[in-house]
Amino acid sequence: MDDVCTVSASRxxxxxxxxxxxxxxxxxxxLRPIRPGLSGGQYKPLTDAGVKRIHEAALEALEVIGLSQAxxxxxxxxxRAGAVLGDDGRLRFPRALVEDMxxxxxxxxxxxxxxxxxxxxxSGTRTYFGTAGAAVHxxxxxxxxxxxxxxxxxxxxSRLVHHLDNIHFFQRAMVCRDVTDNLLMxxxxxxxxxxxxxxxxxxxxxxxxxxxxxxxxxxxxxxxxDQWRARPFVSNSNCFVVPPMKFATESCQTMEHCIRExxxxxxxxxxxxxxxxxxxxxxxxxxxxxxxxxxxxYVNAMAPGHPAIFGTWPFVSDLRTGAMSxxxxxxxxxxxxxxxxxxxxxxxxxxxxxxxxSKLPDMQAGWEQGILNVLAGLSGLNMVYESVGMHASLxxxxxxxxxxxxxxxxxxxxxxxxxxxxxxxxxxxxxKSVCLEGPGHYLGHExxxxxxxxxxxxxxxxxxSSPKEWVELGRPDLVQKAIERKNRILRDAAPSLxxxxxxxxxxxxxxxxC
Length: 514
Hints:
Layout: E1 5-8, E2 20-23, E3 38-39, H1 48-64, H2 72-81, E4 84-85, E5 91-92, H3 95-104, E6 109-111, E7 120-122, E8 126-129, E9 137-140, E10 145-148, H4 151-162, E11 169-171, H5 182-196, E12 200-203, H6 211-222, H7 225-230, E13 234-238, H8 249-260, E14 265-269, E15 272-273, H9 281-302, E16 308-312, E17 315-318, E18 323-324, H10 329-345, E19 350-352, H11 363-379, E20 383-385, E21 390-391, E22 396-397, H12 399-417, H13 429-437, H14 446-451, H15 467-472, H16 478-492, H17 500-509
Helix pairs in contact: 1-9, 1-10, 2-9, 3-9, 4-5, 5-6, 9-10, 10-11, 11-12, 12-16
């Protein structure tokens, strides 16, 4: 929300001039209409009985089916804790083992930003919105075309997120297609994310052998290993499973290394209903929960209480074609249902929230992103990934959509906050004054002016003017306004938020493309 917010009230009775209210300074956090970590949980697509049935089915799947292809180190860790390695090479997980690991799993964790004001408290139904994904294209809205994404695009996205209040964290959203060497691609990804923002960052590594270099860079950014371990400001987005019900061997090796280095883990299960996950929505959740419970066992058998996010990310197929349908209503139901399972276990959780199948920031993108983010927020999903920017079912990322999405997420978070009912808010004293003694309307009333900033959220780029005013303003176009705000932010933003000496050392150590 901008520091100065000017809002025109409705025209007053009798043709008098519109009153303009102005806030000259930022509101305190406890007075702002929206702020990071608002509590959701009002929306529950699953019944209590349904949640318990999914839990029981997931436990049964772990005992009967199990998972294959764990690395030898993982087999050793999990069998020592009580998992059973069958003759078929599959690890099976007795119910008692899962319950024991759930008992020691980390709860109420904090994901740190490099700046403490961006710390996120993952507890209960607190909700945070951010980016994610691995788009291989950037949407050029002016040319209406897609081009390959670059390290500079990723840096620009990170810089934009840093200046957009309603986007709370930045997870790698694009692939640096201009970097052909895989090690340098991972290092440029990590650099671009951290150089652009001091909010919490999420990233991944394409090969376990790259992890050591990653932590060398992180220690340089943090000012030393001790400083990193005290406040780890980057989490590892780890696809530790390949649905259905297989461990991803190399990703598991990466995860083990990250755990030893003190990095929080996003345990990411991303089956696609009707393809790599069962088609019924409930069973898709069962598989995702089972796979993530196996991850909970893995992490806590290795390091009890290590911070990990329960990342059930079941996606949706359009069963007519088999193609992914990221913007569907079913996707919103899946993410909200997964949030209920996170709450059932009392674990910090995350899922996809605001993808769009549309190729451009148009009306289709608006309804898909709005509906999915509202469902995710109202369900109390702790981490809503891919909430802004993602188009073409994760194939394209749009910088202008970050700016538009900031407005959209402001409205979403206002819905999450709900309506405050207090003695003051339901007092009829103002009604009596206006109706019995006053002008017969509430325009300009002290109460109206008092709550207009604490109760209401106002968009930055969205247009609420009348048709006549819109014409007088030159018929402003929403996307064009987003382009202008994007350019203004990038023009004024710092080129890098990494300490200059560390930045220079990083550039001397690795080839940085942006």
